[in-house]
Amino acid sequence: MKINVRYGLPFIEVTICYLGRELHLKNVLLYTGSAGTIFGADAVDDIGVKIEPGDFLNKIRGVGGVEIVYSKKFDFVKVGLVLQEGFEVEIDD
């Protein structure tokens, strides 16, 4: 895994897959202070990730305040040579 430091922050490349559709993201902030993994809705819209009835909603708190996110289980998330199948992420609208 290659970490690129920009603006004093670590960024990585990630490949995600949802319902068989893959997407390669080149500028993903590696934030080690988070309890989970969050992707912006705009970033994952191209592979069909959308909120649906029955999706689990969660309230998260951070420096920027409180936000509502929904959860999705991705087929896999891959960083470098590491691939994790059935990876649950939160989507920030």
Overview of the molecule:
The protein has one helix spanning 41-44, and strands at residues 4-6, 9-18, 21-29, 38-40, 57-62, 65-79, 82-92. The protein is mostly beta strands and 93 residues long. The protein has a single domain (4-92), classed as Beta Barrel (Cathepsin D, subunit A, domain 1), CATH 2.40.70.10. Strands 1, 2, 3, 4, 5, 6 and 7 form a seven-stranded mixed β-sheet that branches.
CATH topology: Cathepsin D, subunit A, domain 1
Per CATH, the architecture is Beta Barrel
Helix content: under 10%
Query: So, the CATH homologous superfamily?
Result: Acid Proteases
Mean pLDDT: 92
| CATH class group | Mainly Beta
Q: From the helix content, strand content and strand pairing, which structural class follows? A: mainly beta
Total number of distinct structural domains = 1
Number of strands: 7
Radius of gyration: 13 Å
Total of DSSP H or I helical runs spanning 4+ residues? 1
Shape: globular
**Mind describing the biggest β-sheet?**
7 strands, mixed
